[in-house]
Amino acid sequence: MIIRSLVLAAVGLTALGLTYVRIAPTDPAVWNVDPTKAIRSGKPNDYLVADGGNRPAIVSDVPPADLLSRIDAVAMAEVGVTRLAGSPDEGLITYVQRSRIIGFPDAISVSARPDGMDSRLNIWSRSRYGQYDFGVNRARVERWLAALNLG
């Protein structure tokens, strides 16, 4: 009887935790962060394309708003992606993409700024929960860049 109660309690707590992960609100004030100002956790659960990141900022001859419009189209075509905040005209967009099975949310912030006659594209993809991301954030960023021929 005690074992049954413990098993039921464990199943119930697991279900509550998984439900929370799926429905917990994502506050734009916390997650809509310019990648050039990223404060990284030190955990292996993010991927940063910016000077000093995992990979340097991408330099492109496409104007910033156009570059962000293109990446917005790529992002919004993916399964489980919603736009949390920002727009191409603002120079910063943050998306949330949820994993297919459990619904773990990842935040992806993208900024583009003029740099002389070019633009500098910065991306910060990070997991909201967990210690390790199994390379998901890097794969996402590299996939988006490849879709734009910026990889």
UniProtKB/TrEMBL annotation:
A Pfam family the protein falls into: DUF1499
Superkingdom: Bacteria
InterPro entries, alphabetized: DUF1499
Protein name: DUF1499 domain-containing protein
Organism: Jannaschia helgolandensis
